[in-house]
Fold this sequence. Notes:
It is built from eight helices and nine strands. Helix content is 30%, strand content 15%. The chain has a three-stranded antiparallel sheet. A two-stranded parallel sheet has the order 1-2. The mean pLDDT is 92. Helix 3 (89-101) packs across helix 5 and helix 5 (197-207) crosses helix 6.
Amino acid sequence: MKPPYRGRIAPTPTxxxxxxxxxxxxxxxxxxxxxxxxxxxxxxxxxxxxCKPEFSAxxxxxxxxxxxxxxEGPDLHGPxxxxxxxERDTLFLEAWEQLKNRGYxxxxxxxxxxxxxxxxxxxxxxxxxEPIYPENWRPPLxxxxxxxxxxxxxxxxxxxxERRVDFDDARLGPCAFECLRDFGDFxxxxxDGVPAYELAVVVDDAAMQISEVVRGEDLLISxxxxxxxxEALGLTPPGFYHAPLLCDTSGQRLAKRNRSLTLRELxxxxxxxxxxxxxxxxxxxxxx
Length: 288
Ligand code: GLU
């Protein structure tokens, strides 16, 4: 029997949400409703430097104003809580330990700058693509296996040498990314003591029994990385639907820094959610 549909919306509270976020979340809600399933709100407030409680609160308030509705979340509770990632560190540490014991990850003292200077550019032209971590910087297999805790150092996932990650996207169809060509060894734990996005999101999507992840198509490469983590942790991956990104009339992608389009300001300027959902901007990219 097919498991019940469970979708999620998972904003990172580093700023006010804009119309692009709202559209992705709206699509997530529609897919959950069409499947007669549940939608979960998860607050991805892990980054201690960049996340702020006021943005967690505004995300809930602004999305509710916009008309989004969810059945489980930090404001409603539910059987899979807590729904804030900052309260779920035990689960993340368990996953770190499993990956470390199985030899999938290693401690790495190179900074982002070191990597950017030394690395090859990725083949993929995706904006989420990062420089490929040089293979000759990898420590021997087993390095770090004795560590009892992550400590104040970054940890990276060693991607397999010859491997293509394939998945079937519910909107885009078959997608494929090649290890060491499209992406290299990636961070799973940060030296400031928190799990990196790729690890936290996999652990939580699995723990919350999410059956389909709806996210922007800027995260396609992340999905490929995450599929390797599901495999390494022995977890069943969900399905994926990558939504098109919302562009403004000049074709520029909306970003949080584009303040004029935050939901807050649209609301303050007197816009109504129904009207925003019928605007020309709203439909950009949706007809493919
Ligand atoms: N918190 C992530 C973001 O806002 C979630 C992305 C995802 O996995 O859907 O980019």
